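Q: Two folds, back to back.
A: First:
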Amino acid sequence: MRERVLQTFRFAATDSPPVDLMEGCVWPELLDYFRRQHGCQDANAVLDLLDTDFRWAFVNYQGPQPPEAEQDAILRQAQDACTGEDAALRQAQDAGAGEDAALRQAQDAGAGEDAILRQAQDAGAGEDAALRQTQDTKVRSKAVMSGPGFSPPLAHAATIQDIAAHPWPDPAWWQPGDYAAFAQAYPDHARVLCVGWSPLFWGACEAFGMDEALVKMLREPALFDAYIQRQNEFYLDILGRCVRAAEGHCDICWLGDDYASQQSLLMRPETWRARIKPALAQQVRLAREHGMYVLFHSCGSVRSILPDLIEIGVNALLVFQTTARGMDAPSIARDFGGKMVFYGGMDVQHLLSFATPEEVAAAVQSNRRAFAECGGYIVANSHHTLPSIRGENILAMCRAARQEEMIS
């Protein structure tokens, strides 16, 4: 299991591709299915039954907890958003079909990049934040500055001093786990350190509000940069303590941020390179210095910045949303195979939610064929927590990954 994953990160041959449930997440509906159908009593039993190659270690949050009723409300809001996501995504796709023309019209009209970015946002950019809100560690960390009736805490920030004066959470609230004990518990699995969801760009969207964040990125770059610097300092404090504690015990470090809709980045690649890339490079370098591969979570159509992620030392892309524009497995393998590992590729909007197990198995084999020459593919669901995802399709996905010979 562990060696299979490490060989995949080296682009070496393996008996079969590694397989995982995205980010080790077993959500309530999935657990209920495996409890009823296979007698699994907890998440670990599900992962064992599926024979996944990874185990995930998290940071210990020791800060203030919101009231229980508020935590329940946050989870209900996220679940409601996920339940209605399929319809919203289909509408976004319909709207996205004409996106290029709309963008050109905006450019011709002199609307500028602000309008372009807002139109891209309307095409469904926020979809994946709703998915991640249901993950326990991320809900706890985000609940410090969010909840029912939440308004962006920096919506009215006008100066760099306003950023400096904002009461950031204390990074000491996030403490490393006992990663040595974790390694002893899972000696045969690839072990992933997940420090938590503290994104740079998406954090700015939460702090300023998405429209304001996009506007500030372009019209008030010094103010935007001040936020990025402060957020990065906060995260590097937590990350640094955790990677030091995990060195020699974890193989992979998870980092994450979201920049894209399913159609395109929410900004020009040049803007991302100027505003986001330098800070992200610091995070990647810190993890790599402590002997871990970097597995980077970023949803949607991020093809235009894959060379940049490779350049700064990111080893693998998690999500690998093959239904997003430019993210299909054959062209990704052709252009980036042997340079970056791709984790995911199993669509949840349609395939894992509405297809048959036979169709799921065929999709796994198709992705395997795409990466047959270059290696570097990990089979996993592209998102999690959607109640529509069928347990039998998750089982089919994992079993298809273990087939010795690919279906021709």
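A: Second:
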Amino acid sequence: MPDDLSALLAKMGAVSPFPIQAVAIPDALAGRDVSGRAPTGSGKTLAFGIPLVLRTSKASPRHPQALVLVPTRELAAQVRRDLQQVAAARNLEVACVYGGAGYEGQIRALRRGVDVLVACPGRLEDLISRNDVALDEVRFVVVDEADRMADMGFLPSVRRLLDQTCKDRQTLLFSATLDGEVDVLVRGYQRDPCRYEVGADESLSGEVRHMFWRAAPADRARLTAELVSSHAPTMVFCRTRHGADRLTRQLSAAGLGAVAIHGSRSQPQRERALAAFAAGRVQALVATDVAARGIHVDDVTCVIHYDPPGDHKDYLHRSGRTGRAGADGMVISLVSQEHSGAVRSLQRVLGLPQVLEDPDDMMLAGSPGSPRNGHLLQQRRVAPGAPSSQGPARRRRSAKGAPADRFAKQDRRAQREGANDPNGSGWSAKSPSTGQGRQVRQGSRKGNSWLSPDQPSRAKRGSNAGRQGHGSGGPPGGRQAAG
């Protein structure tokens, strides 16, 4: 490692490498292709950022030398911030392009000359079609969160972009998971890659307890409000954009500070919401899965799965928002009867006891909770410094009846039954989202407690609302909003 870069890293507090950095950086510096599997918060950005900076030269206008592809706007902005610190040691210009923001500033940066371009696939393809940027001089490519790219349906765009780069480029893939469709990129776009699978650094992770509570649809908002009140700051995950907005209104009506982030919010709105949550000005960040990747906020006490995740990967990414930097945390899933079977399948995949528990009154009152509640998640780990395999990643066989399949079937059924849902969530009248949404408004209209579930619904039904709301936080299997 050059002395100037070592000094810069020491100033940033990066004195010793994380496991993924220790195994991946030497091969990447030697020019090898690398496939790295490591959990969120494990230092992946520096694992590819250090070799990228050391192997990238100055670029001419509109012809970047290095390209980092990411799935979401938030991750693009975060990667750019992290890379800028390291790139300063080599006087390299780093810029990012993504949707939801104006073209003018991005085009001006490209015309001035960008050495390292961080991009979401959709916006990058738009800029290429306008002749504002070309990839024919790109010799170093990183695909970050490659599995998320596959989940969001971006792999065709990623392949088209990679086809436009230099044929002798160096290609790195990093992700918290590395399986399934990512094999297409590994086989087609990497040459004899070194593959590493590294677990989280236990010294940097606190104890996180996972709890699965029985919760009737009418009780979920009340339980969420009590948890947020007692264990802020809290991140709450919903499946749909409308569901996130509705729960945010419910928490605000209960006197709690809450903001929402999802694909329908503009980039300035998303940045303001994240800044308010990170600064402690609000107690809860209510999000769809768009926030499960690439968002780094320290000291999150609690993560609540208000709606079930799409699969075990989404569960891990959501839950990874707590227990960072050595702090303890808790993850609570609110499970209705209709989702209990799929949740047990999820628990089995995660290696957790397949049990549902009643809500813990001690935790709701603000204490750490009863010892009976909560289980530690045991993750498979590979010893640092030892690659799990060489060459292309092997496709893992999916278990029959996996949680993602079950949730997807339930969502399709709920969409059919809830086509006239006045809240636009796509769930039936018996679902958690629509049922609780009406109860909250009724309580406010009658002047009763906002949690009152007893008044009959008088909400009018609309014919088209049920077809809305499945964007970046929607059901598994649907294409999500582009970055």
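Q: And?
A: The chain has two domains: 3-197, 205-378+401-474.
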